[in-house]
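Write out the 3D structure for:
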Amino acid sequence: MARVTGRNIFYGAVLTTAAQLSKIGGGFLLLKLIAVYLGPEGMGQIGNFMSVVTILSLIAGGGVVNGVIKYVAALRHEKKELLIFVSSVKIYSFVFSFLIALVGCLLSEKIAFYLFGDSSKYWLIIVLALAQIGFGFTNLVTGVANGLMDTRSYALIQVSGNLLVLPVAWILVSNFHFAGAALSIVLFYLSYALPAYYFYRKSVFFNRTLIFGSLRANASRLSVYTLMACIGAISVPLVEIIVRAQLISGAGLDAAGIWQGSIKLSSAYMGFFTVFLAVYFMPLIVKMEGKKEISSTVVRFIAIVMAVFLIGSSGLYLFRGIFIPLLLSSNFSALEELIQYQLIGDFFRVSSYVVGFIVIARSSLKIYIFGEVAQGLLFMGLSTFFLSQGMALKGVYMAHIIMNMIYFLVSMVGFWVYLNCYLGEKKCS
């Protein structure tokens, strides 16, 4: 895989932006297809399956993509050590993906009954269980590419995958409705595996003999990121599943579908910031040690993220009467009166992402787990309270705002403590 030099950083930034915009566009078009053919009620019914696919897309292959970016970035000028590390990742990722596939196939009927209320749809679970092996492979390839700052390969994988999946998704959803929508959601993530394999074949890592000597040491490093990914990937969708069930019970399937539509819109544009920080912020922060250097970098990235989000969200809000029917359908018009609550919560959420990536870069497992679990429990508790007060869908959005405001404030305080007590001369008791 190629390396990005100082002369083409701007070119790399453009490619990364284009890649994420293509993913956002592809996600919106898929969401549009599902919204048109299934409506809010169907969106509510398929919401749990979407959450499970999201979980597997993050933990497939061990969920080590951030760890791969970190260690590949650190080893990119040491070819021998880099080859050994990537070999360990290959073994680790395959074993993890195989175990998930085995469990998914064996428990397919039970999982289908829980997700769909219909065990006869077990075959969709088997398809997903096998497909996540491809998810894991893509995570491995893109993680290595980002660690090497090979934005060209990363961008082409993303753009090619999105172009491949949309025609197939249209055929599936328009002809098979619910089953077609479920398969399209799986294919949306699986489609990247084909272009990823093309770039893998061209790389120095292809057809290399697997090296088991350092597997134990590297697996120990990677397991920290697996645990982080599992906690992060499971906690949020699991909480969504619980809140969605409460929302359906208290306000009906249509309300759950409206909320699901806003969640998918949110995850699409929030993904842009996640990729931006993973590609540009985390490789920088990994090698920084000085208090002044770290603080100035963090402040700069927080300002950039806030500014970009404010500009984009303002446009979405001002023209919500155009964008929501365009991106979803006219059946989601109720979201026009609620979208501002989602955007306010997401503003605080995306602002705290920068500090969150420091935790990931420093492999601070305990802090990460505490943060993820605390967010989930707080959101679930607030949602339950507001729903019990008869606030229906608006109560879930208010819970979203309050939880993210609290998390942002705690993140800022935590960052101040980190700077002054761990990097600074001041000792905190």
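Confidence is low (pLDDT under 50) at residues 1-8.
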